[in-house]
Each structure stands twice: as C-alpha cells, then as structure tokens.
Amino acid sequence: MSSPASLPEHVLTLLKTSKYLHLATASKPECIPSVSLMNYTYISPDRVYKPKSSVSDYSDKAADKGGHYIIMATQKNTEKYENILNNPQVSVLIHDWVTAKKLSLRKSSMSNTPTPAESSQEAPVQAPNADHPSRLLNLLQELNQSELSQMSATLQGHAEHLDTFSDEFDYYEQELLKANPDARVYTRGENVSVVKVKLVNAKVSDSENNTKFYD
C-alpha cells in the first residue's frame, strides 16, 4: 500500500502547520462510524523512522522512504483504539483553523461596527452606512480561489498501533511531543498507544466544487 506520489503544496502546508485534525474510524463488522478531534504531527518522507540496523537490512522497507505519515496518540480503552485494531482504514480531515479564525474575527468585527447613531445617543438618525456593504464586498473579494482551496483536505490512510516497547514507538512519540508539547497528557501512563497512519490518497475540493484526487 503506497502513499500518494505527490501532494499539492497547500495540502502539505496544512499538514505541516495545523495542530488538530478530525480522525474518522469505523467499527467492524458493524461499520459504526466515530469521529475524534486529535493532536497530531505530520512525518514527511525524509523523517520516516529508520531502524538502527544497517542500511542493507532496511532495504526491505524501501517503500516506507516515500511515505507520508500522520502520528497520533490515544488511550487503549477508547473506541478509536478498538476500531483501528479491527478496521485499520481511516480518514482524516485537516482544516486551516488559523485562516478560518481570522476570517471569522474580521466578519464579526464588521458586523459589530456601530453605526453613527449607535455611537452617540444624541446623534441624529442617519441613512444606512454606505461603507458597510463596501467592506463586506472587499472581504469577499479577498477570499480568492487560492485561499478557499486551502481551507481543508480529506485524506484516507491505513492506521496501525505501534509496539509500546519498540524504538519506533519512542521515536514517533518524541516527534509528536516536539510538534505538540501539550499532547503530553495523552502519552502518559502504560495505557497509551501511538498510532501511525500511512496516507494512501487525498481529495481536495475548491470553492466551486472542483475535486481533485491524489493517489
């Protein structure tokens, strides 16, 4: 099972800069879906774990060198843990929370801007503020095609729980904590599982519902 040969730059940017993702798993054989908000870190092909053995011993895992991975941590007494054990096919949704928050704040600021009559009780009633539609129009114009297409991406992958006592577990746990120090609460105790998701395809849609697939 191989990763996409290449991912669009804005998807890679989302993977590298976002702090959270939505992880979708499903039970088996019932296929009952479950969605969780997760801390994660993205592992590019050049950062994939390599065993401490010789290079020749690593040749059997050559396919991993080109893989794109997502690393997460979860407790073993969770629904997502059981789902992954029984059905390793998962989906993740990456969202550009920073851009969305900025846009939301700007829209909120515009909508809350007082009119002249609201600013002073003694001010006479005036005609509707003609500038307000202009500000709204400017905001909409700034939401160009490239910005909208970078808002989110859906990716599918194959998940596996790593051996708690392996060097690979330790390596990816440290990578996760370097990217998300506050994720330490999810890696404490003996009941922790580090999950490695190998991305197998991506679906990207723009504001006009044009969809592209990357396998």
Describe the structure.
There is one protein chain. The chain has 215 residues and is α+β, with helices and mostly antiparallel strands. The chain has a domain at 9-49 and 62-97 and 149-214: Roll (Pnp Oxidase, Chain A). Helices cover 31% and strands 27% of the residues. The chain is built from seven helices and eight strands. The chain has helices at 9-17, 79-86, 97-111, 116-119, 131-142, 145-149, 167-179; strands at 20-26, 33-39, 41-43, 69-75, 89-95, 152-161, 192-205, 211-214.
Task: Describe what is shown at a glance.
This protein has about 220 residues and is of the alpha+beta class. It has helices spanning about 10-15, 80-85, 95-110, 115-120, 130-140, 145-150, 165-180, and strands at about 20-25, 35-40, 40-45, 70-75, 90-95, 150-160, 190-205, 210-215. It has a domain at about 10-50 and about 60-95 and about 150-215: Electron Transport, Fmn-binding Protein, Chain A (Pnp Oxidase, Chain A, Roll), CATH 2.30.110.10.
Order of helical and strand elements: HEEEEHEHHHHEHEE
CATH class category name of the domain at 9-49 and 62-97 and 149-214: Mainly Beta
Mean pLDDT: 77
Rg calculated over all Cα atoms: 23 Å
Shape: globular
Number of helical stretches of at least 4 residues: 7
GO cellular component, one term: cytoplasm
Region (Disordered): 108-131
Pfam families: PNPOx_N
Organism: Lachancea lanzarotensis
